[in-house]
Structure formats: structure tokens, C-alpha cells
Amino acid sequence: MSLIRIRMRRSISVIYHELYCIACCLLGKAKVRLFFDKERTNRVELGADVKRSGFMLVDLNIKAPYPYDLRAGLPFPDASIDFIYAEHVLEHFDHDQVHLLLGECRRVMKPGATLSVCVPDAGIFLDGYAHPDQFDVGRFCQHPTLDFSVRINYVNYMFYMDGFHRYMFDEENLLRTLESAGFVDVASREFDPDLDQQVRRHESIYATARKRG
Ligand SMILES: C[S@@+](CC[C@H](N)C(=O)[O-])C[C@H]1O[C@@H](n2cnc3c(N)ncnc32)[C@H](O)[C@@H]1O
Predict the structure, then answer these.
(1) pTM attached to this predicted model
(2) Whether 202 contacts 118, CB under 8 Å
(3) How far is the CA of 87 from the centre of ligand 1 (A)?
(4) Given ligand 1 and candidates 89, 105, 118, which is best to mutate, with the most ligand atoms within 8 Å of its CB?
(5) pLDDT tens digits for range 98-112
(6) Can you list the positions of beta strands (E) in the chain?
(7) Given ligand 1 and candidates 49, 60, 84, 102, which is best to mutate, with the most ligand atoms within 8 Å of its CB?
């Protein structure tokens, strides 16, 4: 296939994706107008489309209860949310978008509300590169085509995730990022079986932060 054709196909798929994102945002906004009650206890999970009881899900999936492109912020009014949870989501945004999204979380959270996050620990994969003899490749890296006999692919695997990952965290960066977004009482936390998925536990770090009361 010629280069021009490849480029045209790519451009069309980018335009299609952006139109899809706009449609998600319009639908999410409309649903908030119709169904959202600021006075209720509102718990939100970001970047999840599988129903979890007690949470309003916001995701770039038109079928999510509240479809929305999180790059555009959050569809909710100021000071309307009691709790926000995001599991393996922040790493899907670039640095500036992470700050925008966290700023949006703070805007929509009620004073004193908590944000709880879980992200992959990129440090595990860097340690794996530095100390391959101590790295359990099968436990941390699963990919159909990457060759894990080449240790740089531990890093390629997590840092790119086939183009889905855009920004990496270790514990220090996660806490610093939450603090610089204006949250207080920022702290690491343990795995919480009532909240976090067991399947992600071995590769994850967890933190909570509060909006000043
Ligand atoms: C790795 S999945 C995590 C799903 C779920 N939280 C979990 O831990 O199983 C990342 C999620 O982020 C969502 N996501 C990625 N970019 C997004 C965006 N711009 N706006 C809204 N959701 C997005 C994806 O649709 C996907 O559901």
C-alpha cells in the first residue's frame, strides 16, 4: 500500500476517533443534565465501563453510564461528588492531561471528599531491566509479539502498552502529582479488596488524597 494511502487511512481513523469522543462528551453531558442529582451521595469511578455497584462510571465508551472523554474534564457540576476512584487510568493520559484531569476531580469533589487512585508501578519494570536475574518476566510481562528475552522490552511493554500508556508513575511521582494538583492528606495506601482488583495487585501502587474541607 502506498504511503499516501496509509496516511489517509490513519487520518480518517483519527478523525473518526475524535468524532466519537465528541459524541461521548455530548451524551455524557446530556445524561448529567437529565439524571444527575447533586444532593445525593455521589461516588464516581473514572475509566471503567464494567458496572460496579455504588459507583457512577465515566468512560470513553458510549455505553458507559456516563460516557465522557476525560481529556475534556468531567461532566459534573462543582462540589457534587463524594468519592472518586480511578484504577489503571491516569497512565493513559499525558502529563498535562493528568494535571487537567486531577484539577477537574478537585473541582467536582465536595470539600473533604476523597480521591483514591491505583496505577501501575513503572519502577518494577525499570528494576527488571537493571536486575533481570531478579525479575519474574512471566508474572509481569504478557504480550503476543514482544520478545522478552531482550530486557528493554520489559520497559517497552509497560511504558508504551501498544500506544495506550502515555505517562508513568512510581510511588514518589504519584504522591507528588496529587500534591501538585492541590490535594491535601496525600498518602500511599494498601491494596483494598473492597475497591481494588486482585488481578492488578502485583504491579500496582495505591494512593489517596483529599480535597481541602
Ligand atoms: C486499563 S483500562 C482500566 C479499566 C478499569 N479501571 C480496570 O482497572 O479494569 C483503562 C480505561 O480507561 C479508559 N479511558 C482511556 N482513555 C480515556 C479517555 N480519554 N476518556 C475516558 N476514559 C478513557 C478506557 O476506556 C478504559 O476503560
Answers:
(1) 0.96
(2) no
(3) 8
(4) 89
(5) 999 999 999 999 999
(6) 43-46, 56-59, 66-67, 81-87, 109-120, 184-188, 204-210
(7) 60
Single-letter amino acid code for the residue at 123 = G
| Domains defined for the chain, CATH in brackets | 3-120+171-210 (3.40.50.150), 122-168 (no CATH)
Q: Residue 194: which residues within 8 A CB-CB, separation 6 or more? A: none
For residue 53, the model assigns a pLDDT of 83
Q: What's the pLDDT tens digit per position in 172-188?
A: 999 999 999 999 999 99
Q: Whose CA is nearest to atom 24 of ligand 1?
A: 47
- The pLDDT value recorded for residue 145 is 96
- Of all protein residues, whose CA lies closest to atom 26 belonging to ligand 1? 47
Give the total residue count for the chain: 213
CA 151 to chain centre: 26
- Listed residue (65, 57, 192, 42) closest to 117, CA to CA: 192
50-68: pLDDT as tens digits = 777 889 999 999 999 999 9
How far, in Å, is the centroid of ligand 1 from the Cα of 88?
7
Answer yes or no: is the C-beta of 45 below 6 A from any ligand 1 atom: no
Atom of ligand 1 nearest to the CA of 69: 20
